[in-house]
Protein: Substrate-binding domain-containing protein
Organism: Corynebacterium stercoris
Amino acid sequence: MLKITRAVRAAVVAAAVMLTAACSSTGGAPPRDAAGGTAGGVDTPRYVVAMVTHGAPGDTYWDLVRKGAEDAAKKDNIELRYSSDPQAPNQANLVRSAIDAGVDGIAVTLPNAEAIGPAARDAAAKGIPTVGLNAGMSEYQTYGLSGFFGQDETVAGTAAGERLKEEGKTKTLCVIHEQGNSSQEARCAGVGKGLGGTVELLYVNGQDLTAAQSTITSKLRQDPSFDTVFALQAPVAIRATESVKEAGAQAQVVTFDTNAELVDAIRDGRVAWAVDQQPYLQGYLAIDSLWIAKRNGGTLGGGQPVYTGPSFVDKQNVEQIAEAAKAGMR
């Protein structure tokens, strides 16, 4: 069974309690949309919330984050404005644009906290409820964000490395697809800590999967002694399985994160297992927390990070998440 941490469980319960208890100062019914149905499941005003991520075009991971955010926004009568840019300066500008637009809340990732954090701090300083998700767990408090939803990348990487060690693996190629992303560096460092063996970093362009596959193939041909290729996202993992075949290598492929295609790859054995951080939940809780902040000034996690992972997905439990993955919820 996949496990949900105590913090996550508490967060979900808190959100449910807030939703159940919600009532307007006049005791009115929830507002209705133009079609006559309720605009969300709550009776609060129509808030506008921005989510700004570092997702690159075509990266299906962020589709899952966005789906969770959209579902929470629909429930909470929120207009969600989602935007992303893999370049840190551009992402910071998107945050500033959201501030200038006068949004009611901001959820932001911090893959490069030094570049993006100051813009997020400006939002918090202006009284805009601002939370972090996915990347930046060790930095979000520095920039005044009131909460964070994600996994500790070092802890997750260490757990993955320990699993590799238990499997008898000794030499891992860790594939970083976003150079300069501190979260990815932390994952690979954690793998090395848990494995206690050799972990070599390989940088590829995650926005050009054909080139990424070619780079991995060349590395495996150059050094066939790697027993594991560790991808940090599902699309790169799928390409890595092709690289292993092209190079005639014996390495197994494992990865962080899942999508529908990755679930199928675990089923048929192309990918041994994945570390799951529940991206749908990250998006959902981030937006729900901003509604709570506007509703009554409350927070999820008491200012501490709310963990959404890690857990492992392998052949033993992959069927439990298969349907959710097909629906774009895992």
The radius of gyration is 20 Å. The first strand starts at residue 47 and ends at 53. The mean pLDDT is 88. Residues 80 and 90 are 19 Å apart (CA to CA).
